[in-house]
DNA sequence: ACCTCCAAAGGACACCAGCG
DNA sequence: CGCTGGTGTCCTTTGGAGGT
């Protein structure tokens, strides 16, 4: 199918509804910007967006089941093109989409290049060329160029007189289907349809290419349609299979455990296969209702009738129904949105469903499959299998490696650990089994709590474990106890599949741009395979890294940060959760409270690095309005913390608290960093930092606080004395932004113990992530406004 | 503790230019 | 003639600061 859409975002729903039966879509004038994400359910997208200008852009959408590979993505002068190669029953075929704007000229070399890449090709595109002898009404300049290309002989065009463009009474054939010799004979049923929406413009062209394309291999993981599962049947079948395993069989060797696990896995898999249908991977188009689909069909019918009769009544009928269709699609969209919104408000905001919905709209992480080349260490991988193996090599060599540990106490620790191990071995051999056996109730309890996450290589989904039977639990208890007793984990459980997520804004060609996510069952001497588009790589050993969701990860983090609280005295309490840290203390007098917190914070500060070192690079690039907002926030928070009234001048606050204005603070930090870089003679860093500084200075300072207000002296004096405790702590440890959000002091007027809490909130993490991902300034701006919003919410909550 | 003023921010809308 | 993005205008809301 080929069409010039003029903004694909507006018409996605209609295209999906009308042309879902077609496997390959060539779309011109997508109007997509490079930073915009676009995905179509069930399709791989290959796009070439127009840079630095409006309009334009081409896109090829190819059904996900078809094996395909992008080999050209080029813009020559104004000509935009994307070419993808597919394997067919008649050998390789290159499919290209080309857009030539009305103002541009056809670049012959683009067509030559396509032909050079593969001399069996199919080119679809809005060439804006009219050539009378091939079915157009007239011939224009680009038509002459097209004629020259056709005269060279290698490309031919579909010769019919169907017009592809209509506006008012003007009709012309300006979209073309070009193909090389054998391929063109396989094209039939060429048809044009009513334009999208209500406008008069390009018509969709559909045709049938009578050859079969090679399909991608099926996913190595079995995917079931759990919605249609018959769980009763599953439990019945599971018990039938499990009964075949002898419960009295003793598990005495490692081999026994391995075979027993495989047998159990097989039972579950077989039962699942019988009790639930496999997910068929069919495209569900939920965006358009059945009524609308009927209307769309009607639109087709009426359109054809009008083209045949060309009478006024049919025309009016067609006009009316096309308006109905676009209204219906719009209403469907609104309905869907309101439905989503109503489920959101009905649910608890902490539930996973809410966040899934948010993610859907946020679509920063939508799957972007990439079918181009992958380059690693001078080798280029072209197909999925090669790519998967390249990733395997990359992860094995660079990511999951264990580097020799050369820290001072490493050897001592090692010998100590070894002696403990020896001792334990002796004890276990003498006293049978130290561990109390795992009971069936414990297993039931764990099984019930399993989340519905993706299965590992054994293809056993947690859903099927949650629907356990008593017999299964007995078997599981037996094998778990055997595992604990023998200290051997079945080989099958050590395998992992790694799927890849492309880090935003990174070069797709380089393996390091991808974040590996392992789908695994266990740990300890694991092996893994990389999965790309259903193709598995060779398996390789994982030597480092902790599994997602494993209790080990937080444990290791705790070990890592354990000493951060070592030097903090007893009077200060602290809480550590994942990457969040909080300190708090209580006291009768403000003075001692201040001292206590200050010393604790200083100790922590020694350990902790200032967030600004993570965040400055992005903060400094934001525009003035963000700085202003941050300044306002800082002022506000300081007032809140100090218990000062609204009319206190900001200058005065900063003067008394000795907290610099946020931007000045940033500059100060930056200058420090520059001087440090200079002492280390790191020229590139120095240059970068200086550039940032100049950007910062170019933003004119608007927060001009002029007159210091006269403030009732008594209040201020008491207030400042208390406040400096919170504020000095804050400024020394964490960036003003974060501290502000959370530093609160109970006003001195309140009798009894007052408490000060400092927390490094999520702001720190968000800023840190923002830098590491390297988002665009636009995204950062949004992110920062979100952070600020969040901080404000905290502030409000504290009031 | 409250009022008032000013400026900035932000939303709704119209309009225009550029692209096709 | 449609779509997009930018600009400008009008209006309301909000924030900051001064004043009583």
TrEMBL record:
A Pfam family found in this protein is Exo_endo_phos_2
In terms of domain of life, where is this protein from? Eukaryota
- Domain Endonuclease/exonuclease/phosphatase span(s) in chain numbering: 94-205
Q: Which GO terms describe its biological process?
A: cell adhesion involved in heart morphogenesis; larval heart development
Q: Which InterPro entries match?
A: Endo/exonu/phosph_ase_sf (IPR036691), Endo/exonuclease/phosphatase (IPR005135), RT_dom (IPR000477)
- One Gene Ontology term of the molecular function aspect: catalytic activity
Gene Ontology cellular component terms for the protein in this record: extracellular matrix
* Record-annotated Reverse transcriptase domain positions: 521-610
Q: What is this protein called?
A: Reverse transcriptase domain-containing protein
């Amino acid at each position: 199918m080929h069409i010039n859409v003029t903004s694909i975002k507006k018409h996605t729903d209609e295209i999906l509804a009308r042309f879902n039966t077609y496997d390959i879509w060539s779309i011109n004038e997508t109007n997509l910007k490079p930073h915009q994400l676009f995905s179509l359910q069930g399709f791989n997208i290959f796009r070439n967006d127009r840079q630095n200008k409006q309009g334009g852009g081409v896109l090829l959408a190819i059904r996900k089941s078809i094996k395909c590979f992008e080999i050209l993505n080029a813009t020559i002068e104004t000509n935009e093109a994307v070419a993808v190669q597919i394997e067919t029953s008649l050998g390789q075929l290159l499919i290209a989409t080309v857009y030539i704007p009305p103002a541009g000229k056809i670049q012959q070399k683009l067509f030559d290049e396509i032909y050079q890449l593969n001399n069996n090709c199919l080119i679809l595109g809005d060439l804006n060329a009219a050539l009378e002898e091939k079915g157009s009404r007239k011939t224009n300049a680009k038509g002459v160029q097209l004629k020259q290309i056709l005269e060279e002989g290698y490309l031919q065009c579909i010769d019919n007189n169907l017009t592809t463009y209509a506006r008012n009474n003007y009709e012309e054939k300006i979209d073309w289907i070009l193909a090389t010799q054998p391929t063109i004979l396989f094209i039939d049923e060429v048809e044009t349809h009513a334009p999208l929406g209500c406008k008069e413009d390009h018509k969709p062209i559909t045709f049938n290419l009578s050859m079969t394309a090679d399909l991608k291999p099926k996913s190595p993981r079995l995917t079931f349609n759990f919605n249609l599962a018959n769980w009763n049947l599953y439990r019945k079948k599971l018990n039938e299979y499990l009964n075949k395993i002898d419960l009295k069989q003793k598990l005495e060797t490692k081999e026994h455990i391995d075979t027993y696990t495989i047998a159990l896995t097989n039972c579950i898999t077989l039962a699942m296969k019988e009790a639930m249908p496999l997910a068929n991977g069919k495209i569900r188009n939920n965006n358009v209702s059945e009524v609308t689909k009927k209307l769309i069909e009607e639109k087709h019918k009426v359109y054809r009738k009008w083209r045949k009769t060309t009478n006024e009544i049919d025309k009016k009928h067609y006009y009316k129904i096309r308006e109905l269709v676009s209204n219906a699609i719009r209403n469907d969209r609104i309905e869907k949105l309101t439905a989503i919104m109503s489920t959101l408000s009905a649910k608890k905001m902490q539930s996973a469903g809410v966040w899934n919905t948010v993610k859907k709209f946020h679509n920063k992480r939508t799957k972007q499959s990439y079918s181009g080349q992958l380059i690693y260490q001078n080798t280029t991988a072209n197909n999925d299998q090669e790519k998967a193996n390249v990733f395997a090599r990359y992860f094995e060599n660079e990511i999951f490696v264990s580097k020799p540990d050369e820290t001072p106490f490493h050897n001592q620790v090692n010998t100590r650990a070894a002696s403990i191990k020896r001792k334990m071995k002796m004890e276990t051999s003498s006293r049978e089994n130290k561990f109390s056996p795992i009971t069936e109730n414990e297993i039931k309890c764990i099984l019930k709590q399993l989340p519905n996450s993706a299965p590992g290589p054994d293809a056993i989904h947690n859903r099927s474990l949650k629907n356990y039977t008593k017999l299964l639990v007995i078997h599981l208890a037996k094998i778990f106890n055997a595992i604990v007793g023998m200290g051997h984990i079945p080989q099958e459980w050590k395998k992992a599949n790694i799927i890849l997520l492309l880090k935003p804004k990174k070069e797709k060609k380089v393996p390091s741009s991808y974040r590996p996510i392992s789908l695994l069952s266990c740990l300890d001497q694991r092996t893994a395979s990389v999965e790309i588009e259903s193709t598995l790589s060779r398996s390789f050993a994982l030597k480092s890294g902790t599994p997602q969701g494993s209790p080990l990860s937080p444990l290791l983090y705790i070990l890592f940060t354990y000493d951060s609280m070592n030097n903090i005295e007893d009077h200060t309490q602290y809480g550590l959760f994942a990457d969040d840290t909080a300190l708090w203390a209580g006291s009768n007098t403000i003075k001692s409270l201040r001292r206590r917190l200050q010393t604790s914070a200083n100790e922590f500060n020694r350990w902790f690095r200032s967030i600004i070192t993570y965040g400055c690079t992005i903060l400094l690039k934001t525009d003035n309005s963000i700085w202003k907002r941050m300044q306002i926030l800082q002022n506000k928070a300081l007032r809140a913390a100090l218990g000062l009234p609204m009319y206190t001048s900001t200058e005065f606050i900063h003067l008394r608290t000795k907290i610099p204005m946020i931007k000045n603070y940033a500059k100060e930090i930056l200058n420090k960093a520059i001087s440090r870089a200079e002492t280390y003679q790191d020229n590139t860093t120095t240059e970068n930092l200086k550039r940032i500084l100049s950007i910062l200075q170019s933003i004119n300072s608007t927060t001009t606080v002029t007159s210091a207000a006269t403030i009732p002296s008594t209040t201020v004096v008491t207030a400042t004395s208390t406040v400096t405790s919170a504020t000095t702590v804050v400024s020394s440890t964490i960036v003003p932004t974060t501290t502000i959000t959370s530093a609160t002091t109970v006003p001195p007027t309140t009798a009894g113990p007052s408490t000060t809490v400092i927390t490094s909130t999520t702001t720190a993490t968000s800023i840190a992530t923002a830098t590491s991902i390297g988002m665009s300034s636009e995204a950062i701006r949004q992110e920062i406004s979100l952070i600020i919003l969040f901080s404000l919410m905290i502030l409000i909550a504290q009031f």
